[in-house]
Amino acid sequence: MSIEIFKGPLIDSIGRKRFSHSLRVMETAVELALVHGVPVKRTRIAAILHDCGRLKDCTNLEKHFKRRNIILDSDSGLNTNLHHAILGRYIAYDRFCITDIDILNAVRYHTTGRIDMSILEKIIYLADAIEPKREYEGVKEIRKMSVKDLDEAMMMSLGNTCSYLRSNKTEIHTNTIECLEWLEKDRK
Predict the structure, then answer these.
(1) pLDDT value of residue 166
(2) Among the ranges 38-52, 84-98, 163-177, which has the highest mean pLDDT value?
(3) CA distance 46 to 187
(4) At what angle do helices 40-49 and 4-14 cross, to 10 degrees?
(5) In angstroms, what CA-CA distances link 173 with 87, 123, 145, 152, 166?
(6) What is the rounded CA–CA span in Å between residue 23 and residue 185?
(7) Is the N or C terminus of the chain more exposed, i.e. has fewer CB atoms within 10 Å?
(8) For 15-34, b where at least 16 C-beta lie within 10 A, e where not — what string?
(9) What is the CATH number that goes with domain 4-187?
(10) Where are the domains of the chain?
(11) pTM for the complete prediction?
């Protein structure tokens, strides 16, 4: 499956700027996939589609949720920055005909993480966090660690996210907290 088939529909629905971000995420994800032995084809698809739910016209997301019978949990309902990942999983399935559960989960959990993430899910989460135009305190260290140790890079990134959200008095999604605890537990 060529990535070209996604280009037009994605640009139409998420815009050129977001599509450019998705291309950078894809390039970063492919680099990580090659280092960590993950199939590049699946990685490219998951990466290019990771933000397919971040619609240009997001004035009526509720209709998209309703049409797909999506019920938001209390954590996600409060944080609108998470809605695109939830919707994106469904768009990847019903608009782009993706049936690979690992790819769908990579799209779904690229914002929060979760317990028992696959390597592909971790790669997409990290690629989104460290793509070349991302600039924030600690990103360079996470980039370096991501090619050495995915789990350590995940813990660094999740820790950064939690610190940022706490400093902004924003609720941290339960999946994020549980993912960080799961990764830390595996290290002991």
Answers:
(1) 93
(2) 38-52
(3) 27
(4) 20
(5) 16, 20, 24, 20, 11
(6) 33
(7) C
(8) eeebbebbbbbbebbbbbbe
(9) 1.10.3210.10
(10) 4-187
(11) 0.91
Cβ(24)–Cβ(133) below 8 Å: yes
Residues recorded for the chain = 188
Tell me how far apart the alpha carbons of residues 182 and 125 are, in angstroms, rounded to a whole number.
16
- Residue 131 per-residue DSSP state: S
pLDDT confidence bin for 3, thresholds 50/70/90: confident
- The beta strand positions in the chain, using DSSP E, are none
Closest to 24 measured CA to CA, from 5, 53, 44, 4: 44
pLDDT digits (tens, 9 = 90+) for 9-34: 999 989 999 999 999 999 999 999 99
For position 82, what pLDDT does the model report? 75
171 token code pair = 């609720």
Measured torsion, CA atoms of residues 126, 83, 48, 101, in degrees rounded to the nearest 10? 80
- CA nearest 176: which of 127, 128, 77, 109? 109
DSSP structure string for 148-178:
T-HHHHHHHHHHHHHHHHHHTT-PPPHHHHH
Angle between helical axes of 150-167 and 139-146 (0-180°, round to 10): 160
Q: Tell me the per-residue pLDDT of 119-149, one tens digit each, with 9 for 90 and over.
A: 999 999 999 999 999 999 999 999 999 999 9
